Fold this protein.
Amino acid sequence: IHAKLGDFIQAGGRLVTIESPEIASAYSEFIKENSDLSYAHRAYGLAKDLYDIKALPQKDLKQAENDFIKAKVEFRRTRERLLSLQVPKEELDKPLSQQTISSLYQLYSPIAGTVVDRTVTPGQSVNGDPTQVLFTVADLRKVQVIADVYEKDLGLVKVNQGATVNVEAYPDIGFPATISTIGDLVDPTTRTIKLRAVVNNEDQKLKPG
């Protein structure tokens, strides 16, 4: 774990390192298929040479060609598997002897923001489920405030209009805001409409929730 709850992290900042036996297994298969492809390539080249001097029947040449095609397909499959596991393409493009593929997978934050939730602990097992959330990073420098507007007051508000937000935590401070969206549906029980406003929160006085 590289980022703790409450840490501010830059875009591209490292959040967590995951040890992935899946990468190690996929890379072993990649090396095997690379070797098989090299062998099939040489065998096909030799078969063509022998066929040209009429030292090999056509069916054997066809067999060598089919083996070469199959080897190319299997090699491409294992390469795509590694790419899907986020192994860098630049690394796979290097000669095999120069590749440094690690079974460690790094997870980076796509945005600059504050770590507001962390659901993973050191040693915990995680899987490839895209719905599994390990970290939540939020840019708290701007927050959204949702308010209920009574139906009778709808004509008093419009998008991009300035507003002031007051909260119980700071009764003496009015936070400048800008209305960003106004809902289209009226709640039949409360006869209100949802309004969303954006508030500058550079000093992070306002807390989500």
